[in-house]
Design a protein that fits this description.
The protein has a four-stranded parallel sheet, sandwiched between helices. The chain has helices at about 15-30, 40-50, 70-80, 100-104, and strands at about 10, 30-35, 60, 85-90. The radius of gyration is 15 Å and the shape is globular. It has about 100 residues and is of the alpha/beta class. It is built from four helices and four strands, in the order βαβαβαβα. It has one domain: Rossmann fold.
């Protein structure tokens, strides 16, 4: 993968799992990283690690993407530090955990 220096990458659901792995890989390529999760606490935990991997900027936005108003707020928040998002990776998902007997 070529350098992503100067490019801004927004990875939804990037405070754990596959999303965090993608953020890590993109940061190592020099990209500006927009991390996303549900709570501000997630950002405080993960932002320093990603920041240590890139010379680019790192920004965290908390939003529940199931709610249009939070999506709109997140878009406004991200526009402030970055005029353009070059790459959007829609990784956020919903995890429904129940016992098999009650799942259906």
């Amino acid at each position: 993968m070529e350098s992503l220096q100067g490019r801004t990458v927004w990875i939804t659901g990037s405070t754990s799992g596959i999303g965090f792995g993608i953020a890590t890989a993109m940061a190592k390529k020099g990209a500006n990283i927009v991390l996303h999760g549900l709570t501000p606490e997630e950002g405080r935990q993960k932002e320093p690690e990603i920041r240590s991997l890139t010379k680019g900027k790192v920004y965290y936005v908390a939003a529940n993407l199931a709610h249009l108003s939070e999506i709109e707020r997140a878009l406004r928040d991200v526009h402030s530090p970055f005029d353009v998002v070059d790459i959007l990776i829609n990784n956020a998902g919903v995890q429904h955990v129940e016992s098999i007997e009650t799942f259906f």
